[in-house]
Each structure stands twice: as C-alpha cells, then as structure tokens.
Amino acid sequence: MAALQYYDVILKPVVTEKSMDGMGDKKYTFFVHPEANKSQIKEAVEKMFDGVKVAKVNTLNQDGKTKRRGMTYGKTAKTKKAMVWLTEDSKEIEIFAGL
C-alpha cells in the first residue's frame, strides 16, 4: 500500500460515554487506519488540530465480528482505535466542544 498521509490516518472520533468522560483529562479516542502506527497517529493529530501537543498514544486492534446471514458466515471489517493523551499546556480539540 502507498504511504499514508496524515489526513488518511484519522477516520472518525469515537463517541461513547466512556470516551466523553476522558475528555476532561485531555484524553481523546479516534478510529484510525488499521495500518497506522503510533508515530503516524501522533503526527496526524498535531497537524490536523492547531495548538495541540500529544503526550502519549495507545492503540487497540479489534478483529471483525463473525456474522451470519442464513447459512453463510462472514466477518465484518477489522478496526483500530487510538487513545490520545494531550499535554497539560496543549489546547483542547475543537470538534468535541459542542458535544
């Protein structure tokens, strides 16, 4: 596959009750490209959001679920989540301000 650009790395934010509670501690959760590594995720967040400085990134790979339709079995797509911690002097991420 071609090299990932920073705008291809972050797919969408994870909007759950647990991820919303972490925003007070400057912890944000995103769905990311399955082939992205931690340094690419850190670079993408810092380039996409002005004034944001990333302190730490944790990632989580999730296998696809087995689904059945009649007698046929299949799997849903694999996903990858990234939990991003910001530094204390960093600005907040603006897309979460209205949630």
Description of the molecule:
The chain has 99 residues and is α+β, with helices and mostly antiparallel strands. It has one domain (6-65, 75-87): RRM (RNA recognition motif) domain (Alpha-Beta Plaits, 2-Layer Sandwich), CATH 3.30.70. 20% of the residues lie in helices and 35% in strands. The strands form two sheets. It has a four-stranded antiparallel beta sheet. A two-stranded antiparallel sheet has the order 4-5. The protein starts with 5 loop residues before the first helix and ends in a 13-residue tail after the last strand. The model has no long low-confidence stretch (mean pLDDT 91).
Structural descriptors:
single chain, about 100 residues, alpha+beta, Alpha-Beta Plaits, two-stranded antiparallel ribbon, 3 helices, 6 strands, about 35% strand, globular
